């Protein structure tokens, strides 16, 4: 007698896909919701080790969620309130630096023009300096105008993000159980596993990168303060942020320091010491921090890393560059699982 | 079986409502105890080591999966990531390959028929990159309690005592299975010797 085989419920699968698609579309279209929610989610992943150690000493879920949210709220707001002054002052000073930069560029350009005329007897017609200066002025002004808005939204996030974080930490498991309930039986096991692996890879990567940025930022800032270089805090912050980008980041972080050094005619400015400092900081990063922290998490070939960064930048700009690597690592895992699945009968 | 959900029955000021409800269900006076997870695990000898509160903690990591009659739980050689306990219904274990299991005309040869309080798939939690040795298919409408590999990892870090007891239970199960295999092997060897 033929058996009637239940091949999984199609309605369940469609319902599940509709839920996943509509939630992601909703989040993607509401950037005001997406940014704090995304940061809260990333922070949840980052604080996982802390959460686990709190549980293991029998601190309850709710209490540990409150504790972590408070620590995050404090450590998020304190540097914003304290650091805003320093960074704003330095950013304002940049405005006075621009004329210096302009003069420097004009002078260099004039000398170049003269040299070309003498050597090759050729008159350079184009004038890129004007355009460059104009672009610089416009973008600096834009940053200065938007600075208050950025600070306001930072403060708004300072309240919203810890709140979201608290609820994700407190009810995370219940949400996960509910989510798993709507996954159809035939894909539940693998979907749950991939979801977990993605969370783990993503969380570990962001955590490692955060630590790396803090280390690089502190080394550069401390070093610049010691050698008496101008804009130590701003340059340290830029170096920390750009360091998140692989390969390209260190150069992007170094460029503003070099420009300031070249433009500044102050005899106290020690260009050589600054260059050595940046080299030392990046060597420490490459030789110690990166192998210990990051490479263990993403086991990807350098070519794949570079390619994923390029693809990421094309799709989502700087954010794309940052998240492209854990995403590529996840994709690798996904392909591995699919491979195991497809070739499972050929063992 | 709603250990993880609030049912506004008892709201003690200091005692959490979940725990109060759990003890209420565990008590001999409770009418609803037949349905409780506590009652269920007390029927499985491998979980004897667990105290009531440990069973309560453990039950938080479990997922309830409902299967229709003749629905495949997993195929043979499929990557295995979870351990199942049968809470309701029955599950058949077969060595047939995927295409045979999915072919309505083929006659399934079951090597075991598991009922309530039985379990299967324990090796998937103990092995990296596990492949299922056999296929599992629900024979009638079944409710299974599943624990997934990531949950076990989480449990080890969050509630290490409970996780250690669970792993101990798993090793009892595996030891029991090994014993069975050794016995079977002995019988086969004896038969071979007789034929010689």
Secondary-structure blueprint of this entry?
The complex is a heterodimer of chains A (347) and B (196).
Chain A (H helix, E strand, L loop, with lengths): L9 H20 L1 H16 L1 H9 L4 H60 L7 H54 L3 H43 L4 H11 L6 H15 L7 H24 L7 H41 L5
Chain B lengths: L16 H10 L10 H6 L9 H8 L3 E5 L4 E3 L7 E7 L2 E4 L3 H4 L8 E5 L4 E2 L2 H4 L8 E4 L3 E7 H10 L1 H36 L1
Explained architecture:
The complex is a heterodimer of chains A (347) and B (196). Chain A contains ten helices and no strands. Chain A is mainly α. Chain A has a domain at 186-341. Chain B is of the alpha+beta class and 196 residues long. Chain B is built from seven helices and eight strands, in the order αααββββαββαββαα. Chain B has helices spanning 17-26, 37-42, 52-59, 98-101, 123-126, 149-158, 160-195, and strands at residues 63-67, 72-74, 82-88, 91-94, 110-114, 119-120, 135-138, 142-148. In chain B, the strands form two sheets. In chain B, strands 1-8-3-6 form a four-stranded antiparallel β-sheet. In chain B, strands 2-7-4-5 form a four-stranded antiparallel β-sheet, with no helix packed on it. The longest helix of chain B has 36 residues, at 160-195. Chain B starts with 16 loop residues before the first helix and ends with a helix. The A-B interface holds A 2-9, 52, 55-56, 173-174, 177, 180-181, 185-186, 188-190, 192-193, 196-197, 337, 340-341, 344-345, 347 and B 4, 60, 63-75, 77-82, 97-98, 101-102, 104-105, 108, 129, 131, 148-150, 154, 157-160.
């Amino acid at each position: 007698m033929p058996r009637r085989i239940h091949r999984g419920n199609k309605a369940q699968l469609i319902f599940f896909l509709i839920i996943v698609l509509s939630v992601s579309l909703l989040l993607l279209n509401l950037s005001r919701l997406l940014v704090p929610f995304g940061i809260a989610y990333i922070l949840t992943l980052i604080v996982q080790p802390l959460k686990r150690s709190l549980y293991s000493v029998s601190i309850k879920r709710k209490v540990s969620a409150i504790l972590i949210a408070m620590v995050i709220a404090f450590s998020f707001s304190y540097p914003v309130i304290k650091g805003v002054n320093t960074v704003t002052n330095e950013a304002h000073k940049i405005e006075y630096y621009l004329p210096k930069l302009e003069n420097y560029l004009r002078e260099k350009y004039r000398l170049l023009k003269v040299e070309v005329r003498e050597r090759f007897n050729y008159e350079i017609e184009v004038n890129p300096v004007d355009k460059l200066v104009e672009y610089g002025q416009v973008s600096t002004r834009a940053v200065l105008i938007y600075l208050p808005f950025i600070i306001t939204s930072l403060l708004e996030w300072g309240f919203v993000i810890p709140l979201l974080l608290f609820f994700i930490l407190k009810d995370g498991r219940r949400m996960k159980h509910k989510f798993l309930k709507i996954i159809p039986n035939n894909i539940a096991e693998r979907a749950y596993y991939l979801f977990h692996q993605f969370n783990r890879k993503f969380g570990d990567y962001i955590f490692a990168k955060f630590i790396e940025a803090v280390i690089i930022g502190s080394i550069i800032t401390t070093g610049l303060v010691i050698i008496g270089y101008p804009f130590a805090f701003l340059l340290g912050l830029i170096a920390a942020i750009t360091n998140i980008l692989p390969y390209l980041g260190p150069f992007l972080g170094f460029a503003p320091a070099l420009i300031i050094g070249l433009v500044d005619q102050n005899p106290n400015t020690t260009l050589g010491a600054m260059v050595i400092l940046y080299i030392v900081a990046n060597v420490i990063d490459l030789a110690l921090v990166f192998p210990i922290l990051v490479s263990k998490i993403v086991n990807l070939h350098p070519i794949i890393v570079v390619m994923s960064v390029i693809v990421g930048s094309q799709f989502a700009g700087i954010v794309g560059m940052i998240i492209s690597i854990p995403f590529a690592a996840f994709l690798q895992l996904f392909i591995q699982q699919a491979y195991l699945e497809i070739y499972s009968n050929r063992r | 079986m709603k250990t993880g959900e609030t049912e506004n029955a008892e709201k003690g000021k200091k005692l959490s409502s979940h725990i109060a409800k759990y003890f209420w269900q565990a008590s001999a006076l409770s009418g609803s105890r037949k349905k409780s997870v506590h009652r269920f695990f007390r029927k499985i000898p491998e979980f004897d080591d667990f105290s009531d509160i440990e069973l309560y903690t453990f039950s938080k990591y479990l997922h309830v999966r409902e299967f229709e009659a003749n629905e495949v739980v997993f195929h043979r050689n499929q990557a295995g990531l979870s351990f199942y306990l049968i809470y309701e219904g029955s599950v058949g274990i077969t060595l047939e390959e995927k295409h045979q299991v999915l072919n309505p005309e083929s006659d399934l040869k079951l090597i075991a028929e598991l009922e309530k309080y039985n379990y299967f798939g324990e090796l998937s939690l103990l092995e990296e990159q596990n492949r299922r040795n056999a296929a599992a298919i629900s024979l009638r409408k079944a409710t299974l309690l599943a624990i997934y590999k990531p949950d076990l990892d989480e449990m080890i870090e969050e509630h290490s005592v409970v996780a250690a007891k669970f792993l101990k239970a798993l090793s009892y199960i595996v030891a029991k299975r090994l014993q069975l295999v050794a016995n079977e092997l002995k019988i086969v060897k004896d038969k071979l010797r007789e034929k010689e």
